[in-house]
Amino acid sequence: MKLLRWILLPLIAVLAMALAVANRSYVTFGFDPFDVETPAFAIEIPLFLIVLVSMLLGILMGGIGAWAQARRKAARKKGAAPAAGLPALRAAESD
Q1: Is the pTM of this model over 0.85?
Q2: For residue 31, which of 4, 21, 40, 44 sits 20 to 30 Å off, Cα-Cα?
Q3: Per residue in 21-30, pLDDT tens?
Q4: What is the rounded distance in angstroms from the CA atom of residue 17 to the CA atom of residue 75?
Protein backbone atom coordinates (compact mmCIF):
# COMPACT_ATOMS: atom_id res chain seq x y z
CA MET A 1 0.00 0.00 0.00
CA LYS A 2 2.82 2.41 0.84
CA LEU A 3 4.57 1.58 -2.41
CA LEU A 4 1.38 2.40 -4.30
CA ARG A 5 1.18 5.72 -2.44
CA TRP A 6 4.79 6.55 -3.33
CA ILE A 7 4.05 5.83 -6.97
CA LEU A 8 0.68 7.60 -7.25
CA LEU A 9 1.29 10.77 -5.23
CA PRO A 10 4.21 12.06 -7.34
CA LEU A 11 2.27 11.21 -10.49
CA ILE A 12 -0.74 13.19 -9.25
CA ALA A 13 1.52 16.11 -8.28
CA VAL A 14 3.14 16.18 -11.72
CA LEU A 15 -0.27 16.04 -13.40
CA ALA A 16 -1.54 18.88 -11.21
CA MET A 17 1.46 21.02 -12.11
CA ALA A 18 1.00 20.27 -15.82
CA LEU A 19 -2.67 21.23 -15.49
CA ALA A 20 -1.68 24.46 -13.74
CA VAL A 21 0.77 25.42 -16.49
CA ALA A 22 -1.74 24.60 -19.22
CA ASN A 23 -4.61 26.61 -17.67
CA ARG A 24 -3.26 30.08 -16.97
CA SER A 25 -6.18 31.97 -18.48
CA TYR A 26 -8.54 33.92 -16.27
CA VAL A 27 -12.07 32.67 -15.59
CA THR A 28 -14.98 34.16 -13.69
CA PHE A 29 -15.45 32.31 -10.43
CA GLY A 30 -18.95 33.11 -9.23
CA PHE A 31 -20.62 32.27 -5.95
CA ASP A 32 -24.20 32.81 -7.16
CA PRO A 33 -25.73 29.59 -8.54
CA PHE A 34 -28.99 31.31 -9.49
CA ASP A 35 -27.66 34.03 -11.79
CA VAL A 36 -24.92 32.73 -14.07
CA GLU A 37 -24.72 35.79 -16.32
CA THR A 38 -24.32 38.47 -13.64
CA PRO A 39 -23.56 36.80 -10.30
CA ALA A 40 -23.88 38.81 -7.09
CA PHE A 41 -20.28 38.01 -6.12
CA ALA A 42 -17.70 36.89 -8.64
CA ILE A 43 -13.96 37.22 -9.07
CA GLU A 44 -11.67 36.90 -12.06
CA ILE A 45 -9.04 34.32 -11.15
CA PRO A 46 -6.68 32.03 -13.08
CA LEU A 47 -8.13 28.57 -13.49
CA PHE A 48 -5.03 26.87 -12.11
CA LEU A 49 -5.53 28.64 -8.76
CA ILE A 50 -9.03 27.20 -8.48
CA VAL A 51 -7.73 23.71 -9.26
CA LEU A 52 -4.73 23.87 -6.93
CA VAL A 53 -6.67 25.42 -4.02
CA SER A 54 -9.38 22.77 -4.45
CA MET A 55 -6.77 20.03 -4.35
CA LEU A 56 -5.14 21.56 -1.28
CA LEU A 57 -8.47 21.76 0.54
CA GLY A 58 -9.20 18.14 -0.35
CA ILE A 59 -5.83 17.01 0.96
CA LEU A 60 -6.32 18.98 4.19
CA MET A 61 -9.83 17.62 4.77
CA GLY A 62 -8.66 14.07 4.06
CA GLY A 63 -5.76 14.49 6.46
CA ILE A 64 -8.01 15.83 9.20
CA GLY A 65 -10.41 12.93 8.67
CA ALA A 66 -7.60 10.38 8.82
CA TRP A 67 -6.20 12.03 11.95
CA ALA A 68 -9.61 11.95 13.66
CA GLN A 69 -10.12 8.31 12.73
CA ALA A 70 -6.68 7.35 14.07
CA ARG A 71 -7.42 9.25 17.28
CA ARG A 72 -10.70 7.37 17.77
CA LYS A 73 -8.99 4.04 17.12
CA ALA A 74 -6.26 4.88 19.64
CA ALA A 75 -8.87 5.85 22.23
CA ARG A 76 -10.72 2.57 21.66
CA LYS A 77 -7.51 0.62 21.91
CA LYS A 78 -6.72 2.23 25.28
CA GLY A 79 -10.24 1.46 26.46
CA ALA A 80 -11.16 5.09 26.83
CA ALA A 81 -14.55 6.35 25.76
CA PRO A 82 -14.70 8.68 22.75
CA ALA A 83 -14.63 12.36 23.60
CA ALA A 84 -18.21 12.97 22.51
CA GLY A 85 -20.90 11.55 20.33
CA LEU A 86 -23.92 9.35 20.20
CA PRO A 87 -22.19 6.00 20.98
CA ALA A 88 -20.87 7.43 24.24
CA LEU A 89 -24.35 8.61 25.18
CA ARG A 90 -25.89 5.23 24.42
CA ALA A 91 -23.27 3.47 26.53
CA ALA A 92 -23.95 5.83 29.42
CA GLU A 93 -27.73 5.23 29.18
CA SER A 94 -27.41 1.45 29.21
CA ASP A 95 -25.38 1.42 32.47
Answers
A1: no
A2: 21
A3: 888 899 988 8
A4: 39
Number of DSSP helices (H) and strands (E) in the chain, helices first: 3, 2
Interhelix angle for 47-78 vs 2-22, to 10°? 160
How far the first Cα of the chain sits from its last, in Å, is: 41
CA atoms within 13 A on the CB side of 37: 0
Q: Nearest-CA neighbor of 52 among 80, 77, 18?
A: 18
Residue 80 backbone dihedrals phi, psi, to 5 degrees: -80, 150
In tens, the pLDDT along 24-78 reads 899 988 888 888 788 888 899 998 888 889 888 998 999 999 999 999 998 888 8
- For residues 44 and 28, is the Cβ–Cβ distance under 8 A? yes
- Residues 27, 45 contacting (CB under 8 angstroms): yes
Task: Report d(CA 75, CA 21) in Å as an integer.
Answer: 44
